[in-house]
Amino acid sequence: MSVKTFATENIRNIAVTGHSHTGKTSLVSAMLFNSGAVNRLLKVDDGNTITDFDEDEHDRKITISTAVAHAEHNGCKINLIDTPGYGIYTTDALQGLRVADTALILVSAVAGAEVQTDKMWKAASSFDLPVIFGINSMDRDRASFTRTIENLQKKYGREVTPMQLPIGAEADFSGVVELISGKAYTWPHDESGKMTEVEVPAEMADEFATAREALMEMVAEQDEALMDAYLEEGDLNEATLIEGLKKAITARALFPVFTLSGGKNIGVQPLMDALVNLTPAPDWRPALVTIDGEKREMAISGDEKFSAYVFKTVSDPFSGRISLIRVFSGGVASDTTVTNSTSGSTERLGALSIIQGKTMEHVSELAPGDIGAV
Questions:
Q1: What is the rounded distance in angstroms from the CA atom of residue 256 to the CA atom of residue 105?
Q2: pTM of the full predicted structure?
Q3: Which stretch, 13-17, 331-335, 347-351, has highest mean pLDDT?
């Protein structure tokens, strides 16, 4: 059976990053489960997650090495780059950020921003990456959405903007109210991820109105035409709000915040919707400056010459040396001969694969913007 391929505009490269024990791998597992990539919700504590496959990771129940998996959602391929959260593995995490197009920074709803939160925020800024925050572990004791939002805004600015309000708190956390659509959803606590649309709780009506108005004002501030429309109508419709949000997020003028429990599989699908609808495809990037005899600009396009970045090399006892690559331009087919810009030598790439943790599926080609292995 042939492996499904995706055009550049239907690819999203997301670095899942943040401090240790903020639930990055558990969230990736929930996304894979909800997309149908796996048939059950895999757990860090059980040592069977797709992106923590090293024995040391199983024993210590932490991510040590950046790994890649992918989930298909609403017609898009989401490449999920699961990065370590411990400071001693920062270099590996940075390599994951380097090949992403958006940084998803997870923050504990209990602890708020921590040391690695700051490091990943600064790294995303240095790479000029859009940032989405996920307030995770909302089901834990002492979890607070309000306190964590205030913490993030104090550290990173008023541009940190909630996209949702939580329904319930701590053990009673059960759903979210979407500020864009005005819809509310709940989930059972059985980790099934079964999402049900419900009425916005009556006691949240005022809070919702205030939060949605703040969101519209923040989006309108980024665009003169939107501000005129908002001042004239006193509202922005859903389609206009989404378009304005995407532009603001891509320009790093706004940093949206989502609320969830990855471990309980609550609130995960709306975050996946946002990754597809609000974050940029690989071709949003400005032209690359490459060295090809001399410096030249190269667009993220299939019309350009092939270029890719090797961000990790691992040894496999069966396959030998495997290099993980992010294709930037040109696309590439199996058995292509390319130039190593570091050594100046030519190399044959051999078989290409897409990655699901330690499992690889052979493909005939990789599109510009995609992530794979060779």
A1: 11
A2: 0.94
A3: 13-17
